[in-house]
Write a structure and sequence with these properties.
Layout: H1 4-12, H2 16-49, E1 68-74, H3 84-101, E2 105-111, H4 113-119, E3 125-131, H5 144-155, E4 161-171, E5 174-183, H6 194-197, H7 205-246, H8 248-281
Parallel strand pairs: 1-2, 1-4, 2-3
Antiparallel strand pairs: 4-5
């Protein structure tokens, strides 16, 4: 029979993770929702820049035959988050299968150790870099190393396309894993704007486009991190709530076992007292 201390810990820890996740979710959801407008504007700016004359000659807009594709997948450092990690890794697996079908190589950058553990078991896939999950209070500086690696790999032509796989937060009970192409930037026909092509750029068009495109790609990666963080906390909270509901009978069993253990301890103490009293009287 388990000790009373162990039983108390099991009972008291049933809802602890649910409450912690609910608390973290509120902040993560607020951050994700507030930054979406900036992400959307970044996408529009990239689309407009891609309509400029000769922009395809810029390194970050160059479209090449895809011989190697870089996948950025966002997971967590820990489990107990429902299907959060499994869904993202399933999408990564599907994307890697597409690469093999098209005879393209696959490289992966993982954010979160769960993704790294999975990719290391895959044959024919290069794990380019591993970044631990960025914590509950990430900053824009945290994504800078990821951005630098992505831009360097694409400019050096080590990879010909880059996509990011993350979990989009819709609501507490609805999250969706999506694959978003980052590089090269894709032309959006209805985003054409003659005012862009008529603008003056200082110091020159090449420098401005390169710097602006880099910052806007950074915004997309940053938003993906925030969306994934909110989704992780939401899925962990739901998973823990489901576990708490399903474990009600188990908690009752633990409580009964705890009471039995207490009674056994009391009976043992009374027996020892009685035995001691009889020994003294004898």
């Amino acid at each position: 029979m388990a000790s009373t201390i162990v039983l108390k810990r099991r009972i008291n820890s049933t809802k602890a993770m649910e409450l912690v996740s609910a608390s973290k979710l509120r902040r993560a959801q607020e951050y994700a929702l507030k930054s979406r407008a900036y992400r959307d504007l970044a996408n529009q700016m990239l689309a407009k820049l891609s309509t400029m004359p000769d922009v395809t000659r810029q390194p970050l807009f160059e479209k090449r035959a895809v011989k190697n594709r870089l996948h950025i997948v966002i997971t967590s450092n820990s489990g107990l988050a429902g299907a959060f990690n499994a869904n993202s890794l399933k999408a990564l697996t599907g994307s890697i299968k597409e690469d093999r079908t098209s005879k393209a190589g696959s490289k992966v950058i993982t954010v979160g150790t769960k993704g790294a553990q999975f990719v290391r078991r895959l044959s024919g896939v290069e794990l380019l870099a591993v970044y631990p999950a960025l914590g509950d209070h990430p900053t824009a500086n945290d994504v800078q190393p990821i951005l630098n690696t992505v831009v360097e790999q694409f400019k050096d032509k080590n990879v010909d396309a880059v996509e990011i796989i993350y979990t989009m937060f819709h609501s507490t009970i609805n999250q969706e894993v999506i694959r978003v192409p980052l590089l090269p930037t894709t032309l959006i026909e209805d985003a054409k704007d003659d005012h862009v092509s008529l603008s003056n750029f200082e110091p020159d068009v090449e420098t401005v486009i390169d710097q602006v495109a880099t910052r806007l790609i950074e915004a997309q990666i940053w938003q993906a991190v925030l969306e994934s963080l909110a989704s992780e906390h939401a899925m962990r909270m739901v998973a823990m709530k489901s576990a708490s509901d399903n474990a009600k009978d188990l908690i009752d069993d633990y409580t009964l076992e705890l009471n039995t253990a207490r009674q056994a301890a009391i009976t043992q103490e009374l027996a020892e007292i009685s035995g001691g009293a009889e020994a003294l009287n004898g």
